[in-house]
Each structure stands twice: as C-alpha cells, then as structure tokens.
Amino acid sequence: MTSRPDHPHPHSRARARRHLLPNTAPWRSSRDFRLIWTSGTVTLLGSIFTMTAIPLQIADLTASPLAVGAVGAVELVPAVLFGLYGGVLADRADRRTVALATEVALAALSALLLANALLGTPAVWPLYLAAGVAAALQGIQQPSVEAMVPRLVPQDQLVAAGALLSLRWSIGGVAAPAAAGLLIAVAGAPAAYLVDLGTFLLSIALLAQVRPVPSVRDAEAPRLTEFLAGARYAARRPDLVGTYLADLAATTFALPTALFPFLAADLDATWALGLLYSAGAVGGLIAAATGGWTDRVHRHGRLVLLAAALVGAATAAAAVAPGLWGVLLCLTVVGAAHWIGDTFRSAIWNQSIPDELRGRAAGLEMLIGSAGPALGDLRAGGLAARQGIRAALRMGGLLCLGSSAALSAAIPALWRYDRRACSDQRGRDGQAALNDQPALNDQPTLNDRPTHHD
Predict the structure, then answer these.
(1) How confident is the model over 185-199, as pLDDT tens digits?
(2) Closest CA to 122 of 59, 28, 75
(3) Cβ contacts of residue 108 below 8 Å, gap of 6+?
C-alpha cells in the first residue's frame, strides 16, 4: 500500500497561495478598468491629505471642537442630494465625461484651499465651502464611476473587480493618514493641499484615456424625479433592499469612529489614537490581500449577512477586550468583515442591476453610505454620553448582530441569493422597472427561482 506523503506537494501549496491572493483578472483583461482603478487610488490618497488638513486647520483657527465637528454636517446634505442627482445623470450622460468633469472641478477646489492656506491669516469660511462643494461633486461623480465598472469588465470578473476596488480603500486608509499627519506637522497645511492638487492632475490625465461610456438611453436633460424609477426597482427586489439594510445596520451600529478619541483616553493610551483609526483599514487590507477565495463563492447574499454579523460580534467584543491590543485586534476583525460585506454587496449590485438603472442604484447606495456613518456617530456619541464608551460599543455591536439575524429571517431572498441565477432576468426586470409595469410586483424575485446548479 502506498502511504500518503506527510507534506503537501509544492504545487499544491502554490495553488493554495494563488487561491488566497486577490484575483487580478480585471486588471489584466481591461485597460480601462486599470485606468479608473489607478485614477481612483491616486485621487483617494490625495484626498486623505485634504481630509486630514481641513479639520486640523479649523482647529488651529478656531480652537473649537464644535467647529471641527460641523464639517460633517456641512458635507452630509450635499452628498445626499447631489448623490441622488448624480445617479440620474449617470443613466443619462456619458459616465466617463461626468467623472472627468467633476475631477477637474475637485482639482480647482484643491487650488482654492492651497491659495487660502498660503494667506497670512487663512479664512475659515473657504474650508467649509470647499468641504460642502467637494461633497456635492463627489455625490455627482461616484454613481458614474461605479456604474462604469460593469461596462468595462466581463460579467464573470465583477466579484474580482469589486474586491480590487475595495483594496484601494484599504491601502489608502493604512498609508495616507500617517503620511498626511507627518507632512502637515513638518510643512503645514499648504503642503497637504499641494499634494492633493498634484494627485488630481495625475488622475485627470488617467481618466482622459478611458474610452467613452455613453448611456444606453437617449440623451435627455436628467430629471431628479427619474430617481423614483430606480427606487421602485429596488423596492421590488427584496434581496437588493436587504443589501442596503445590512450596510445601514453595519455602519449605523458598528462603525464607532466617533468614539475613538475617548476610547484611547479610556485605555490610557492617547498616543495610540492613530492605531485605533487605522486598525479597520489594516483588517480590510489583510482581507483584500487574501481575498482570492471570494471569486469561488456563489451565495453572495449569505456572505453579506454573515459579514454584518461578524462586524457586530467583533464590535461587541471590543467593548470587553482586555487592554489596547485586544481592542485593536477586534477592530481589525471589524475592518476585515466590513471589506467582505462591501465586496459581496458590490458584486450583487453589479451583477443583477440592469445597466439602464445602474446609475440611480449607485445614487441610492451613496445615500445609504453617507447616512449610515453620520447616524452612527450621533448614536454612538449620544449613548456614550449617557452610559459610557464601553456600553456604547457593546450596544452597537449587539444591535448590528441582532439586525443581521433579523434580516436573514425577514428577507430569505437575500440569504438564498446565488449569482448563477441572476443574469437571465436582469434585462427583463430593468425594462419592466423603466416602464413601471405593475406586473413586476407579481413576479418572483431572482432568487425565488429554482436553480439546477446546487
């Protein structure tokens, strides 16, 4: 009898490593995807310099925590309103043109911030103005950028494309804040704005090389009321609604960034505030770097719900973790779970939403993505003021965990979602939504249909 070897064959180990590494097929197969990925990464890195500089500059000029906190309020309303309009625009105009025009406008804002910072006594109002206008421009831009991806990569590479897009957020979240803080400490806010302006110029040069991505619909003046067609389509897709609710639960209940300054003091480790901020990004980067397995998963809805549950459980664990390193470990797990949820939500959206509705769906995604963290900061801060930091963490985690369980029971279509059953129905459902056919309400959802693949 031949005995089994004690150690795996070297080729088996190599295959296992390849299965963990990110799938780079979208990079290899699509020049345009490489361009928008690189452009977005460059822009993100530069924008983090500005996002770090603006609060620090306001703090230096006003010495008021309330004035610093008001930046978020200034950004929220423009992000929501213009995100909705940006979704409509993405379904009417050339998406590459929208992305390029807004990138040019964002570069002009960076130039304004640089000019203001170089004054002898910088004014405060341009900082708020720039924050609000930038939020509006990003609200217009993001739906077009997201809606381009399904047109640039093959259908079977959409999961990998989503994972690669999530990877750039993890890279930026780990590297850029520390670099920005160091640069501002050494050279001041003008240097940060100069870096941001330079990255915008490079990003514009990259976007200009992307081929046009025109709308599949007749070019007409976009109307905000057209957003209702996208909302009606989403309402008729319980699995889609479930992804929005899972995202909202994770960001509202278990994204405790507003508590980090106070948590650092509670841990008697104010020096570690930067580590608390970056722990989630580190977790996301680790998950992205070992995320090759995501391409072999078909039950995407199940992973969305399980990731949200893991976010909640790890956040609750952070509330009782012993010492700084235990808290950092829990927050790293939170970041990894957020990455998994984001990757599979993006895959569901890109695979199953018709192209003619993709921009408006992205606008709805942006609304949820903007509202969740803002509501989460309010919830965490209010609860922490009444019951303490640890109680706010624990309650938020348990609420997120409970919400995930409730969604699994209330929306079985999301739990059963299988990417192998989604493509045939996408076009018919999209046309029905555009025509507002009531009969769509009576049709089974994509994942109520039997599949013979299991």
Answers:
(1) 788 889 999 999 999
(2) 59
(3) none
